[in-house]
Design a protein that fits this description.
4 copies of one chain form a homotetramer. By secondary structure, chain A is an alpha+beta fold. The first copy, chain A, has 3 helices and 6 strands, in the order βααβββββα. The first copy, chain A, has one domain (2-127): Roll (Thiol Ester Dehydrase, Chain A), CATH 3.10.129.
């Protein structure tokens, strides 16, 4: 499964080097993730299931300025038992790639306090 | 002059109380301000003139959640010599007002290191 | 009651103007507030009582740079029924005042979903 | 070369899951980096040389709460021509490891607009 969403840069995302700060890229991919989860899995989100980041990686290729367009493509990989991998491409929508990122996620049930199986509805969607 | 823009809530804007953190409202109005300045005064922005916040205020009326729509109306008041006031209404676009904010801004020329007169182009626009 | 705490500036607090962003001042005073509340009212904090900001204000006097020392003095005013006011002075610890801020807070019981009376223990401390 | 520094958690670092947000770890290691660079390489920092993050990675092992102690150990690896690697361990100072992170950095001269050689003073220090 692949999906795509636009992110709006804020002045506060810039740092003293006048480009988007490296930590903000992780906020951007989180924003993309939540938007897409809300769009595709709102019922699952409403159950209180949490999706924890257990590993995150980003390779920075081009700086992002305040008025640059930003699109994030998210690829959902076929999950393991309780974890799954998301790959992100941060780009301009016009051929310029700013960064490539990746998160390893775990499904976590906060009421039980433990990792749980990736819901079937998500498995089906991810394979779609 | 009045103008309006949409802001997208990010998961990172929420705090442990599960609503948008109070400091994020100031980031939201800054984002609205830069978007509108870029739209209306891009030539002035390109000269390097800075608009510094010398006072900021916000009254919080209703909490904002992750998936709530957010629109910010900005009212530009007729400026003084080097300062001007912006009033903001943060609302849902459907009648619900989340907050009212206000910033006092000063035009600052960083090359001269001092406050300078509000440009005529902005004065004209503000009065429009 | 008055209390004081140090805050450490982070590179991420700076914006493209190379000084601390105006919204970060509200994060700083929140940090000071939580540190002092944890120090003086840890039992009350543990009950889950929340302290919501219903109004916030800051006057910016001097810019803050990355390596500047920052101390925040907090003055706790005698509370009303469910609300109280905190005044903050952000300074260098060596006579330079960066900003003056103020928040109006409300005691909120999230289990009841409503404002509640300021606890007596806090009233006594505030008057001390 | 190895060095170590304390970081103070802020309420704003927490997200709606009530633990430190995953993106904040990158802000923490950046804060540690700037503190240590300021301590050891203040002259080089003053020349305007920038250290850009070209890759960042974090493995999250244990959640971090608001009042948890946080120490970051930074290991500076022997540099290549214009790049170097920093490894970070985020821990409690009492044996609990929260996360392991790594950044690949490039020395960048903004006046020339290009990557430049890692300064000899840094090479010597890193090997020490």
């Amino acid at each position: 499964m692949k999906a795509s969403t636009k992110i709006e840069i804020r002045f506060a995302d810039l740092d003293a080097y006048r480009h988007v700060n490296n930590a903000s890229y992780f906020t951007f991919i989180e924003t993309a993730r939540f938007k897409l989860f809300h769009e595709y899995f709102s019922e699952i989100m409403a159950t209180g299931l949490q999706f924890l980041v257990v590993e995150a990686n980003c390779r920075y290729l081009e700086p992002i300025g305040l008025n640059d367009p930003l699109v994030i493509d998210v690829e959902f990989q076929t999950p393991g038992r309780s974890s799954f991998i998301l790959n992100y491409i941060l780009h301009s929508g016009k051929g310029k790639v700013y960064a490539e990122a990746r998160t390893v996620m775990v499904c976590f049930d906060s009421s039980q306090g433990k990792a749980v199986r990736v819901p079937d509805q998500m498995r089906l969607a991810f394979e779609g």
